Amino acid sequence: MIVVSLLLIPLYLPGVSRSIRNGRRMKAESFSPHSAAPAIEATPFQLTYRELLDLVLDRRLAELEQTHPGEIARNKNIAGNMMRAVRAFMKANDLHPTDPIGAEMRDETSWEAARDRMGPKASSQKSLASKSRVWALEAYRAADARYDDENFGERLARLQEVSGLSQRQLAKSVSTGEHAISSMSIGSWLRGVSYPGAESRDVVEKLETVLGVAPGSLTAKMPKVPIHAKTSNLDIPPSIKRRVAAHLPDDFDSRSDDEQDEIVSWVSENILSTPKEIYDTGRIKPATQIDVFVFALAREPGKRGKMASARLLSELDDLGAYKTAEMSPLHIQRNLRWGSEAHEKADYDLRAFFGALDQMGLPTSAQSLSILLAPEAIERFIQWRFERRGAYTKTIENFLQLVRSLLHGETGFLTQQEGFGAPLQEIPGFVSKKSAEMASSDWRGACAECLEMLRKRIKDLSKVNKAGRDPFEALQPVIEGQPKPLSVYWKIIDEIRSRMPGPEYPVRLAEAQRSLIMMRVGLATGLRQRNLRELLVCPKGGKRRTRKQLERLGCGELHWQDGEWWIAIPGSALKNAGSKAVKPWNEFPLVDSDGLLDQELEAYLRLRPVLLHDHDDPGTLFIKTMRSRAVTPEFSQTGFYNAFRTIITTYGIYNPWTGRGAIEGLRPHGPHSMRHVIATHLVKTVGIDAAAGALFDTADTIDKHYGHYLPGEKHLDAMRMAFADIGRQNAGAQA
Question: Is the CB of residue 724 less than 8 Å from the CB of residue 717?
Fold first, then answer.
């Protein structure tokens, strides 16, 4: 009988929803913004007494039909007794059929008092009325379930309709001197145009009180991920303030000044800064301990840094065309051809060199590649770089190797083009009179003399170079002392899943799905950053690109094959294409470690168009969020690095002030660090050859650059293996 009764509940729900439209509304003129609306008028929906009477009749008849089938007259009489009991309850409490059921039926204490008002002679009617109360509560609970899938705006709109309050009245009722909310903001929430952030939680809680609903009815529908606390009290530049705000607790503005300083200090040290060791000799001021590449001259106006001169950019374009052309020009030799990555790096390094000289006072008119023939300018840069870092680093040596290639006696770009660039003039502190005169009279001789200086400096630097950055420093909690680093790093993926926004935030949901897939594909392939950001995607049912097409494009493709997602990538697209570890053609399935890869990839591909915002699709798996200032959906090298770094700072680093984040002590890092995690995990668990196979590299490279297996860890693992059999033998003997 109980089962039948529960099945009948949905039959009465249409009446419940109709009451939302037809029930009585509170009169606006009687509302005071400083007092809560009566709960009877502001329940999530209204069930009137007329609907309760209909429910009583239908419900009781259905029950009686089960116990006394066919006895229609008898059953109607018994059901009528319950109807009369409910009417007696209504009369005793001055209730009318159009009144919505309130606390007198739903609240236990109020119900007892309301039932007692029926008088001492109505004992049987009290009993029957009690039974109808149970049915009314079941109807309420069943109707509640109908609204589980509402988003915040839909629920607020429904509750506002029930209350009869206007947007202006709602805004006035929750506004205070400290936190005023406009009716326009309420309207945006109602329409779903925007949603309240974490800083508006107290406003939403006041709305719950005003509307007379249970605590949590509205706050439960707020975004799972706070949109960010406001930081109006911070006296820092807006660009930095936005980055800081993402990592502040919701109640930041209400905390003491000391706590705020402590929180901002933690965010600055652990979130904004990337681990980079500075060798302080005691002579270097903290203000000068900065990377030289901050001062790189820009190629486009509006970018960070000073704009490079038109002549310098023209010369860099000529150099790039010479080094990237499929065939070297006639009458000029070339040793190696640059790929896109090498070209981009060399171009940036040269602009950084001229940016440093510009900081030291080099006139704009002297910005020309011809200054590379002046040993004094290069020496000045070496010392300037040393002052900024506190040590001679490999970065300086790498730049000198680039300049050396341009001045090579047979294949150097500058050596073979006499008089290239602006005429070299004497500039105190940068170009000596001797260098200027020699460049004018004996171009090749000037190149040879500077080349000899570079040879000696590179040799000296190789002896005193210090590591400017430890690639494993940011990953210490993941790899050091951890037998299975990949399992620890996987916590970031679980964190992204647990904080996935709802569908009411389509852009943020698409970005979170992109973060999830970026991590999953990176860890499942071990590919370098360039290969990941250039990876194309062929959706299920789409036409795959041929091997020749991918070789011509110089990138890989993700496609669906034999019930799995596969990667196809030509060897020429990999950095170490000439290595024995790389084959001309590489094709392999993505390992689905938890059975969710296909589901999550499909979810991302469905949401991917949201990021495009009607822009042309470049076909790459990972695309930027196309906002007003974005030019192309394709990630640049810097853009992809920053996108991955944001994943780590948002989901990876445990923030003690917000309680969010997966791994305590983790530091910001880029996508290349995934290769270190994979290599270290495999070296510790399987062996160095397996790590080399996973990363398409040699065992020597893994040992030298990627695997982080400390001698103490190796010793401990080896000794455990050595004594494992002895332990088992002793256990068997004791048994």
Answer: no
Q: What does the alpha-carbon distance between residue 101 and residue 89 come to, in Å, rounded to a whole number?
A: 12
Residues 6+ apart with CB under 8 A from 603: 513
pLDDT recorded at residue 108: 79
Q: What are the pLDDT digits (tens) for 498-551?
A: 988 877 778 888 999 999 999 999 999 999 999 999 999 999 999 999 999 999
Cα(381)–Cα(629) distance, rounded to whole angstroms? Answer: 35
Query: What's the mean pLDDT when you consider all of the chain?
Result: 81
Residues of 220-255 as b/e, b for ≥16 C-beta within 10 angstroms? ebbbebbbbbbbeebeeeeeeeebbbbbbbbebbee
In total, the chain counts a number of residues equal to 735
Q: What are 226-254's pLDDT values in tens digits?
A: 445 555 566 777 767 777 888 888 778 77
Check if the beta carbon of residue 468 is closer than 8 Å to that of residue 393.
yes
- CA 480 to CA 485: how far, in whole Å? 8
Residue of 677, 675, 678, 661 whose CA lies nearest to 271: 661
Lowest mean pLDDT among 579-583, 659-663, 709-713: 709-713
Instruction: List b or e across 608-628, with b for residues whose CB sees 16 or more CB atoms inside 10 angstroms.
Output: bebbbeeeeeebbbbbbbbee
Assign 467 to helix, strand or coil.
coil
SS3 for 477?
helix
* Of 357, 548, 536, 371, residue with least CA distance to 450: 371
**Tokens 């048994």 found at:** 735
204 phi, psi to nearest 5 deg: -65, -40
The continuous run of DSSP H or E covering 639 comes out as helix 637-647
Q: What is the pLDDT of residues 99-155, one digit of tens each?
A: 888 778 877 788 888 888 888 878 888 888 888 888 777 776 666 556 667 788 888
Burial class (CB within 10 angstroms; exposed 0-12, middle 13-18, buried 19+) of 674: buried
What CA–CA distances, in Å, run from 237 to 232, 240, 241, 244, 566?
11, 6, 6, 10, 45
Edge-to-edge, what's the strand order for the sheet holding 564-570? 536-537, 557-561, 564-570, 585-589
d(CA 226, CA 669): 23
Q: Where are any strands of DSSP class E within 86-161?
A: none
Of all helices (H) and strands (E), which one includes residue 536?
Answer: strand 536-537
Nearest to 167 by CA among 21, 20, 28: 28
For the record, the structure tokens of 440 come out as 């004018």
The token pair at 413 is 């770009």
**Is the distance from CB of 157 to CB of 190 less than 8 angstroms?**
yes
Q: What is the mean pLDDT of residues 317-326?
A: 91
3-class secondary-structure state, position 307? strand
> Band of the pLDDT at 178, cuts 50, 70, 90?
low
The pairing of strands 585-589 and 536-537 is unpaired
